[in-house]
Amino acid sequence: MFEDYLPVLFQIIIAAGFAVATLLVSVLLGRSAKRSKIKDSAYECGMLPLQEGQPRFSVKFYIVAMLFVLFDIEVVFLYPWAVVYKDFLAAHGAGIFFAALSFVSILGVAFVYAWRKGVLDWKN
């Protein structure tokens, strides 16, 4: 049984060895480089960094981003359903359709709720 896992073990050892070797080379070469204030400063596409590092985003930006991820993941759940729909329908009847219809209905209610609350309105 050990022979079955030997290639996996070799791959893990090679990957860990590569990571350690890369870090060691980086540390050794990084110490030998000449350091100066200009080299250690942040590079902003040729512009001098005069402002804060990260601009502040509105909370609405994050809410819309979370809603996008939420609805995007729900679509990912619908894809396997669509793949097996025809075979499942022939074997078990229309139960799969009504399950997906209830799933999409709940998503629709959530979308309408978010829309009514003004979450998707960028002007505010």
Give the uncertain stretches in residue-range form.
none
The total tally of domains equals 2
Let me know the number of strands.
Answer: 0
Indicate the structural class.
mainly alpha
Largest sheet: none
Helix content: over 70%
Radius of gyration: 27 Å
Form type: flat
Write the H/E string, N to C: HHHH
Helix count, DSSP H or I runs of 4 or more residues: 4
Q: If you average the pLDDT, what whole number results?
A: 83
The N- to C-terminal Cα distance equals 63 Å
Beta-strand percent range: under 5%
Describe the structure.
This protein is mainly α. It has 2 domains: 39 residues; 58 residues. 73% of the residues lie in helices and 0% in strands. It is built from 4 helices and no strands. Helix 3 runs antiparallel to helix 4. The termini are far apart. The model has no long low-confidence stretch (mean pLDDT 83).
Short synopsis of the structure:
The protein has 124 residues and is mainly α. The protein folds into two domains: 2-40; 59-116. Helix content is 73%, strand content 0%.
Annotation keywords:
2 domains; flat; mainly alpha; 124 residues
Secondary structure elements and pairings:
Blueprint: H1 2-32, H2 37-40, H3 59-92, H4 95-116
